[in-house]
Each structure stands twice: as C-alpha cells, then as structure tokens.
Amino acid sequence: MEKSAINTYIGQHKDRMLNELMELLRIPSVSADSKYSDDVLRTAEAVRQRLEEAGADKTEICSTKGYPVVYGEKIINPALPTVIVYGHYDVQPADPVELWHSPPFEPVIKKTDIHPDGAIFARGSCDDKGQMYMHVKAFELMMKTNTLPCNVKFMIEGEEEVGSPSLGPWIIENKDRLKGDVILISDTSIIANDTPSIDVGLRGLAYMEVEVTGPNRDLHSGVYGGGVANPANVLAKMIASCHDENGHITLPGFYDDVQELSAEERAEMAKAPFDLEAYKKDLNIDDVQGEKGYSTIERTGIRPTLDVNGIWGGYTGEGAKTVLPSKAFAKISMRLVPNQNSDKISELFTNYFNSIAPKSVKVKVTPHHGGEPVVVPTTSTAYKAASRAMEETYGKKPVPTRGGGSIPIVALFKKELGLDSLLMGFGLDSDALHSPNEHYGVFNYFKGIETIPLFYKHFTEMHKK
Ligand code: BES
Ligand code: MN
Ligand code: MN
Question: Which protein residues touch ligand 1 with a CB less than 6 Å away?
C-alpha cells in the first residue's frame, strides 16, 4: 500500500482514531494495584473488542494466573510471513496524583513546545496504550482498504509494568499458535520527532528490596542516640558504598560479564544526535552525572547501573519527631547490559549487602522481578523493512540506538519462540512515561499508524526475495 493511500484513510478517520484511544485511556488499568483489577479486566475486553472490530479473527481473552493476554489474528495465506504484534494494555500507577495538571485518567490534548500539534495527556498515553493502539488502527486501515500483505497475530498483555509474570508461561503453552517471523513492538522511543531511530537493544533488570533492622522498637533519639546502630544511617552508608568516586559500581564481580563495545561501535553510537543542553533543560538540572569515561547516551544505553528507587524509615510526617527508627528500607534497581544475567546479579547483590552489614543490625534482602538484556540485529529483514518504512514517513533514515529501559519478555521471545523482536517505538523519552503528566504526541500517534503498514509491505516483499 502506498503512503498517499494510507494518509487518505487516516485523514478520513482521524477524529475517531483519536477518540477511541482517549476512551481506552479513561480506564485506569493499573496492574500494580489490586484495587484496579476490574478496570484492568475491562481494558482487556475493550482491546479484544477493538481488535475484532478492526477485522481480527479468533479474538480471545486468554486467562492466565494473573491478568489475561488478549489475542487475535488474521491469517490470509499460510505461505506468507507472519508478524506478531506485542504490546501492553496495563499502565503504571499515576501517583503522585497531585502533581498532574489534569486528572491522569481524563485524557486531554494540549500543545507543548515539543508537540506543537498537541499531545494527549493521560497515564498510559505513550506507555503503552497509545503505541499499542497504533497497531490496532494500522491493522484496521489495512483490513478496510484490502491491503494487508501478510499474516498478523496480536498478543497484548496486561502485566508488563509488573514484570510480565504470566506471559512467560503463556507463550510456552501457546508455542503452536505463536508461530511467526518477527515480534513487532512499539514500546520504546525515538530520538526526536525530526530524528527517527530504532532501538537495537534493551537493558535487563534486577530489582531488590533491602530491610535493615536495628533495635526492636523505635527509640528516643536523645536517650539512645549514639549508643546503638541507626538502621537508616547504616542503610545509607551501605548504599553509598555501592559506587566509587568515579561512578563505577563496587559490588565484587558486577562487571564480570559486561560486554564492552569496540571503539568502532562506540564511535558509531556517538553519531546519534544528542543535545545535552536540551536534556538538562528538560530535567531542570545544571549538570548530568554518571560513570566516568562514558557519555550520557552510553551511560543510559550500554552501561549497567544501580539506583535507589525508594527509601524510607523513621518519621516522615509533618514537623519533627525525635526518634531512632527500628527499621529502614530501600528498593534498589540494577539495569543490566549484555551479557549480564539477572539471577547472578541478584545473588551477587544479596551477598554484598550481607557481607558489609555491621553486627549491630540485621539485613534482609529480597529480590523482586528481573529480566534479561537484549540486542536485536540490524542485519535482519525486519530491521531493514522498519528502516525503509521510517525513512519514507520521516524523510530520514532512522538511527540505531540502545534503549535504557527494559521489556523483560523480549529475551523470552527469543529463548522460547526463537524470534527476534523489532523495537519500532514512536514515543519520546521526554513524554514523561512513569512520571506525572505522561503524554503522547498526536503527531507521533498518527506517524506510527502511517509507518506500520509500510513496515508490513516492505517486510512481506523482502521476505519473498
Ligand atoms: N515501555 C517501557 C520500557 C521502555 C521505555 C524501553 C522507553 C525503552 C524506552 C516498559 O513499559 C517499562 O517501563 N518497563 C519496565 C520493566 C519493569 C517493570 C519489569 C522498566 O523498564 O522499568
Ligand atoms: Mn511499556
Ligand atoms: Mn512502562
């Protein structure tokens, strides 16, 4: 199908396509919080219905131990290639809600400096309902204009934001119906609206919780202060010891499996446009920080990290209360790069925290979810097809980039189904995913709907050769 025909269809259905997404964004499908479980299930049904309306066959809400996977397919000819679309209909919690300028589940379109055509403000607008729904609308467009060039299967899950605990078992049980040629995912970012890019890697994750216990109860900080260990002080010191003065991580063995990039690969990465001043301005910081010897793009793409995600203990209410906490806690994430392994890193972290704990406290380390890092080949048919499709719609060849976030299931797609993923994202890192005031450009939404059919076309044609 030609670009002009795609744009004619989009032009005729623009308002409806936008309104349907807004409708989906009104359902608070927060997978982390059980109080929203009915809403998460309602979202699954809404997605199934939209898939069916768009022309998918065998649409199904597939039960799992957790939230269901929404499935649908269109097989036009078994001899043709099959694209498997993956996305997620769950979203991150919206809090702190008071920092939103409009309610997180009442989507509104507002213009911003970066999005002069307007952006949809709502939790999940970019991550991932907006990006997932582009695939449903692109499919509808191909179905209604009789231009679907190959087979397609949809697999939309509802637990990505909590580590995809049920999707792994589900793909293993459904290997037969998941036969295909590539997994197509829009759940990552491009560099800028005038600089398309395709992520060729994702970091892995090891997420840990640490509990430090001192005396058996909170104590008067004057009466006991100085005489016993303060778990908050101890925890702070333990965390501080995880990095040296150059920003390197000090956990013994942490870098053992880290794949170092060659000078050529690093030079190639450095070609990707990156505006440090704009980056600092967007975040309102005077300087960046990180591992010595690496650029910001490298620090967030090809280097592993260790970061506190939350830390608490003692008195945090209004005013002052003079008290030594009995316990202190921290949630700590480590982003991993090839060829690190999340189980191995979790174990190494546990050993380190146990080994440095002073005798005056007890330390308990609990691993949460994890995921493995991935790299996707730029030599694949899928990459070439995506590159050509984006070049046609953006007027520029996309730059390969390494995304800093994680989509743990991608490594399992490779391991269990033997399939590479193609990470054709359309969001921007500055779209505030997981933050208050998440938004997704109207331009980005329609750019995705315009580009996806061209991907199908090129992928199918290149496959025949
Ligand atoms: N879509 C993101 C991952 C992402 C965002 C990758 C931007 C690259 C660029 C995904 O929904 C996400 O947030 N993943 C979690 C995984 C975790 C909950 C297991 C993450 O990265 O923290
Ligand atoms: Mn996502
Ligand atoms: Mn996310």
Answer: 127-128, 160-161, 163, 187-189, 202, 205, 369, 371, 403, 405-408, 433
